[in-house]
């Protein structure tokens, strides 16, 4: 009888362990949601090959100066941002490239792959616009990618929309009974990436964000080395934040007309 009772008592523990094992095995299928973003490569006008993977996207105003690179959110079809960013930033070149596994891009997403791709995209943009400052704009998941780029490359201004301190912390907030911190491999630790960043930052957060808890965005803001400009959209949620007119106004004001590029005697761009 005692053995039988112990067997019954162990079932919840075995079930819990099974759930954790399943989450660990399937985590990238649960984190990355490219299914609804797929398009044919013929619909794109930008291509870059990295590690034998074709990355595809779009370029607005390719001959313009002062480029902006946009890193989209999870499950976002970045081409849907073309009208908005083209309207708000008519005097800037804007690059929108789908993550690997998204849009028309090949490969499978992971933190390391997305980070490496993002640096390759930055370097390609820099080669097309030599000597010009580059702005990076990241939304949701893209805020983690943008934060990494800003930690590795010169970024003149950084815009983070619905950002988080780390993907692990967000996941832990949603699943407090699961040891997420021990299971998640793709961590997107923006606090660590941006701790020493001294450039101009604008953070846009939604008051009704149901995906990124306010505390996670707040911890990122508090950890930044230089206080950012914070835009609070009290009535927006995670899905509507990027289309809110107040976001559009703030973005246009923060970036403004593309400044004239000049070099100081030491050769740095200002």
Summed up:
With 270 residues, the protein is an alpha/beta fold. The protein contains nine helices and eight strands. It has a single domain, classed as Alpha/Beta hydrolase fold, catalytic domain (Rossmann fold, 3-Layer(aba) Sandwich), CATH 3.40.50.
Could you describe the 3D structure shown?
The chain has 270 residues and is of the alpha/beta class. The chain has one domain (32-255): Rossmann fold (3-Layer(aba) Sandwich), CATH 3.40.50.1820. The chain is built from 9 helices and 8 strands. The protein has helices spanning 2-31, 82-88, 111-128, 141-152, 167-174, 180-183, 190-194, 214-223, 245-255, and strands at 46-50, 53-60, 65-71, 92-97, 135-139, 157-161, 200-208, 229-237. The protein has an 8-stranded mixed beta sheet with strand order 1-2-4-3-5-6-7-8, with helices on both faces. Strand 7 (200-208), helix 8 and strand 8 (229-237) form a beta-alpha-beta unit. Helix 3 packs across helix 4. The longest helix has 30 residues, at 2-31. It starts with a helix and ends in a 15-residue tail after the last helix. The model is unreliable at 261-270 (pLDDT under 50).
